[in-house]
Amino acid sequence: MSKIAWIGLGVMGFPMAGHLAQAGHDVTVFNRSPAKADAWTQKHGCRSVTTPAAAAEGAEIVFSCVGDDDDLRAVTTGPDGAFDAMSPGAYYVDCTTTSADIARELAKVLGEHDMHFLDAPVSGGQAGAENGQLTVMVGGSNTAFNHVAPILDAFARKVTRIGDVGTGQTAKMVNQLCIAGVVQGLAEGMSLAKNAGIDIPSVMETITEGAAGSWQMSNRWKTMASGEYEFGFAVDWMRKDLGIALKEVARLGGTAPIGALVDQFYGDVQRAGGGQWDTSSLLTRLK
Fold first, then answer.
1. Which CATH number fits domain 3-164: 3.30.1540.10, 1.10.8.60, 3.30.450.40, 3.40.50.720?
2. Which residues contact 167 (CB under 8 A, 6 or more apart)?
3. In whole angstroms, what is the distance from residue 123 CA to residue 215 CA?
């Protein structure tokens, strides 16, 4: 069992850190909101501390799952950041969805001090985190990956090394662009079914078993049909992720017209007050 630090106890980080504690690891947590850290320790035991540095002190592996590039930089290299307290040979595993640039930036900082950085964004949403069934896309050296992969298994159903540092984040960008197109297609199909007055359960249960089937269809059509969106992966976060992906597409000289269009549609949902709604709320903007 390992001595682990976990930084960030949001809707994803809270259950992910919990799975590590349940697996028997010695977990110390930090969260900017102390109330969440207190709730976590009440549920899982272990301990919480008041700074990222205090969490990282003496840890073999430090995990983070925060908001964006700026948040990650703050908890790593900012005042009382984790990097100041990490020891040579330690590993930093970031599960935030960020740019690939910051992953490479932070890997360089740690590499100069004989420490290891891996970018390990996840897919599977809140339900996947709670059930320990996330898909983890990892960027880092083979040696570092082989060391941390068994630890990641505590909250994952699939852990894959994509390549060197930064490639995990690039894989997550691919993931989010694919999701955007699928959810928009699902919304348009369900809108047609509603407007045509056909039985929604009959059509959705049928086509889910055919070529149109997807995770989004299987897990979201019922809530979409009943207009339930107060759960899941928030539109605000999806727009953040798509912004990262579209910027990378442009940097590489490519185009992603469907991704860019769906990003605008999510902007419509935000303006309608749905920033915290699940991404399947694209249906709300269709008549």
1. 3.40.50.720
2. 100, 119, 137, 139
3. 12
Closest CA to 147 of 161, 133, 168: 161
CATH class as words, domain 170-285: mainly alpha
Q: Within 13 Å of residue 73, how many CA atoms lie on the same side as its CB?
A: 10
Active site amino acids: 172
Mean pLDDT of the chain: 97
pLDDT category of residue 147 using cuts at 50, 70 and 90? very high
Is 239:263 a contact under the CB 8 Å cutoff?
A: yes
Helical spans, DSSP H, in 112-234: 125-131, 142-152, 167-196, 200-207, 215-225
- Compute CA distances 46 → 29, 41, 61, 66, whole Å: 8, 6, 16, 20
Beta-sheet pairing, 61-64 with 91-94: parallel
